[in-house]
Structures are given as C-alpha cells and as structure tokens.
Amino acid sequence: MFHVTVKSPDSIDVAVEKLVTNLKEQEFGVLWDFDLRSKLEEKGQTFDEDFRVLEVCNPKVAKDVLSRDLLAGYFLPCKMVVYVDKGVTKIGMPKPTHLISALEDKELTSHAKDVEERLTIAMNQTVSG
After folding, report:
1. In this protein, which residues make up the domain named DUF302 (predicted)?
2. Which of 45, 89, 95, 120 could tie 8 with a disulfide, CB 3.0–4.6 Å?
3. Which secondary structure element, helix H or strand E, spans residue 88, and what is its range?
4. CB 13 within 8 A of CB 95
5. d(CA 110, CA 98)
6. Per-residue pLDDT averaged across 36-41, rounded?
7. Roughly how many angstroms between the first and final C-alpha of the chain, as a whole number?
8. What is the pTM of this model?
9. CA 68 to CA 46: how far, in whole Å?
C-alpha cells in the first residue's frame, strides 16, 4: 500500500491541533495548513467534506536529502491530510518510502524510512490520546 491512514475520534480541528503538537515532538514543523474545502468554496465550488492538507518538514532531513538528489524535491515537503470521510475524521499520508523509491537510492530510502516512522508515530499518538 502506498499510504498510511488512521481514524481519529476527534473533530478535524482537534485532530489537526493534536497532530501539529505530535509532529513537533518528532522534530517536524507544519509549513502550511491548507483548508481545501474553504478554498474550493471561495472559488464557487461546493465540497461537502472538511479536508486539510498539511505540508510538514524537518529542515535537517530536507537539507540532507536535497543535497544528495535535487529530484527528491518533487516529494518535499511531506504531505499529510486530515479529512472527514462519511463522518469519520481520518489522518493520512503517502508513504515517504514509496515516493522516494522512484529515485532508487539506498541512502535516500534510509532517510525516508526514518521520516515515515516518525510521521507514523505522530499520527498514532494523535489518535490514541
């Protein structure tokens, strides 16, 4: 599977707030919190579900990865989504290991494994309390 998704008992706003806190514990910051529903409505499009896209980054890891291969910039910053699907709040992300595999570089795969583990920890902490 190319992604990790977990269910949260919280509202989307509470889930985002908890996720941001847990990401900080894993040394990741949120560069951008994009409210897709609001943006679509601003553009005259109706979208029924809440959907937020967070771009998250660890500057040291980003520098190391980009210093090795600038093509990794196609995958950075990491995207995480928090959305409501049929009344259930979900948190997810594409797996960094899946994305980086396109570059066929073992060192970059190692970085991606570390990032994936840390982001998954933050997601799991967010939904477990």
Report:
1. 34-96
2. 89
3. strand 88-94
4. no
5. 12
6. 96
7. 26
8. 0.94
9. 42
Note whether 30 and 123 are within 8 A (CB): no
Which one, of 35, 63, 70, 30, lies nearest residue 49 by Cα?
35
Residue for token digits 């290991």?
A: 97
What are the structure tokens assigned to 16, written together?
A: 């985002």
Beta carbons within 8 Å of 106's beta carbon, 6+ residues apart: none
Residue 128 and residue 37: Cα distance in Å, rounded?
26
Whole-angstrom Cα distance, residue 15 to residue 125?
11
pLDDT at 58 (0 to 100): 97
For residue 120, the SS3 value is: helix
Half-sphere exposure of 60 (CA within 13 A, CB side): 5
What is the pLDDT of the chain when averaged over all its residues? 96
DSSP string across 13-82? HHHHHHHHHHHHHTT-EEEEEEEHHHHHHHTT----S-EEEEEEE-HHHHHHHHHH-GGGGGS-SEEEEE
With beta carbons less than 8 A apart as the criterion, state whether 100 and 63 touch: no
Q: What is the mean pLDDT of residues 23-35?
A: 97
- Check residue 96 and report its DSSP letter: H
